[in-house]
Here is the input.
Amino acid sequence: MRILTLLFFMFLFNPLWGQENEYAIKAAYLEKFARFTQWENNDKIDTFRITVLGKNPFKGELENLANNYSIHNKKITINYANTLNELAETHLLFISSSEDKHLKTIIELTSQKNILVVGETKRCTEFGGHFIFFIADDQTIGFKVNPRRIKKSGLDTDIYLMSYGEVVRY
Here is the structure.
C-alpha cells in the first residue's frame, strides 16, 4: 500500500500532469488527506462529509471523487456552504480563497472541533489551519501541513503523509 501511495504522490508532483487541472489534483489531495487521517469518532461515522466554504473552484471534481471513492469505507458527500452555520457534521473543510478575509474567524470557530481544515492561502496555516496548497516554482502543486494544529483538533494524521508536505509550526 505504501508503494502505491508513493507512486501516487510522485505522479501528483509531475509538472506536466499538474498543468492539466489544478483542482482535479487538489481534489485528489483532499482524498489522500482524509484517507490518512483518523477522526475521534471514525467508527460512528456513516457518511464522510467534505464541505467547501465560499466560492467553489472544483467544477465537479469533488463530485467525481465522491462517485468513485470512499473514505474509511464510508460514502462521501459534498456540501457547499456560504456561512459558518452550515458546517455541522463536516469532517473535512476546504476554505476557498474567496474567504481569505474571514479566515481568522473561520479557523477560530473550527479549531476546537474534529474537522480537518484545508485552505488555499498562506494565512490558513498561520491562523491554525491544518493543510494549505501552494504552487511551487516548478509549477507543481504542493502542500504545507501543521501537525501541531492537527493534533490539537483531536485528529491523527499518518506521519507518512506528512513526509510529503512541508511541515510548518504556527
